[in-house]
Amino acid sequence: MSFFARLKEDLDAARSHDPAARGSLENFFIYSGLHAIWIHRVTHRLWQEPALRFPARVLSQVGKTLTGIEIHPGATVGRRFFIDHGMGVVIGETAEIGEDVMIYHGVTLGGRSLAKVKRHPTIGDRVTIGAGAKILGPITIGADSAVGANAVVVKDAPPSSIITGVPARSRPRDAKRESKPAVDPAEYDIEYRI
Fold first, then answer.
1. Distance CA 144, CA 52 (A)
2. Can you give the three-state secondary structure of 119-153, one letter per residue?
3. I need a labelling partner for 133 at 20 to 30 A (CA). Which of 30, 90, 103, 106 fits?
4. What is the DSSP letter of 130?
5. For 104-156, how does the pLDDT look when each residue is reduced to its tens digit (9 = 90+)?
6. How many CB atoms lie within 10 A of CB 166?
7. Helix (H) or strand (E) run with residue 168 in it
8. How many other CB atoms are there within 10 angstroms of residue 192's CB atom?
9. Where are the alpha helices (DSSP H) in the chain?
10. Cis previous bond, 185, omega within 30
């Protein structure tokens, strides 16, 4: 995929995930989540070459300072990944993130071990992670799942789960209940008057 096609894909992902996104030009300049992902792509490429790991770490720290989002250069990030608001996001070295994933501010994909092994989570495709959630250890969050705000997840969750609580527990998604918008104006008999 060409540089410009990937850039367009990222901007389209921002618009599809954020109703406040007003246009690609504005998003290009002001969305720190996009900036963090773009910097990560460069640092991840550098990280692949052992001789360039120090510059990769330096650039990732510059990115953290500019965006408030820390993505280790070793982390693997899929396409159309979107970070909304972003401040305080931390993604560890061995984290793996699938495609079409969206996370909010204050999320940590962290480790629970000091051993030099796979110690960060694997996030499946089309997962949404709510603000402040902590997903810790070499666990897997299955595709099409949603992690609630401030959940502390330390166990695997199967695909199509809702994961909430401290410590978090998963339950199957209710497709019928969750197919309609979270707020449906038709449910409110509100008459607007000027």
1. 35
2. CCCEECCCCEECCCCEEECCCEECCCCEECCCCEE
3. 30
4. -
5. 999 999 999 888 899 999 999 999 999 999 999 999 999 999 999 999 999 99
6. 11
7. strand 168-172
8. 4
9. 3-17, 24-30, 32-47, 53-67
10. no
Residue 14, token pair as written in the block: 């921002």
Q: For the sheet containing 134-136, what is the strand order?
A: 70-71, 90-91, 108-110, 134-136, 152-153
Alpha carbon distance 62, 2 (integer Å): 25
Amino acid 189 reads D
Choose among 130, 127, 28: nearest CA to 77: 127
N- to C-terminal Cα separation, the chain: 51
- What are the helix (H) ranges across 147-186? none
> Rounded to an integer, what distance in angstroms lies between the CA atom of residue 60 and that of residue 54?
10
Residue 108's CB: how many other CB atoms inside 10 A?
Answer: 22
Q: Which tokens sit at 30?
A: 């002001």
- Whether the CB-CB separation of 125 and 99 falls below 8 Å is answered with yes
59-104 confidence digits (pLDDT tens):
999 999 999 999 999 999 999 999 998 899 999 999 999 999 999 9
Query: Which conformational region is residue 8 in: left (phi greater than 0), alpha (psi within -120 to 50 degrees), or beta?
Result: alpha
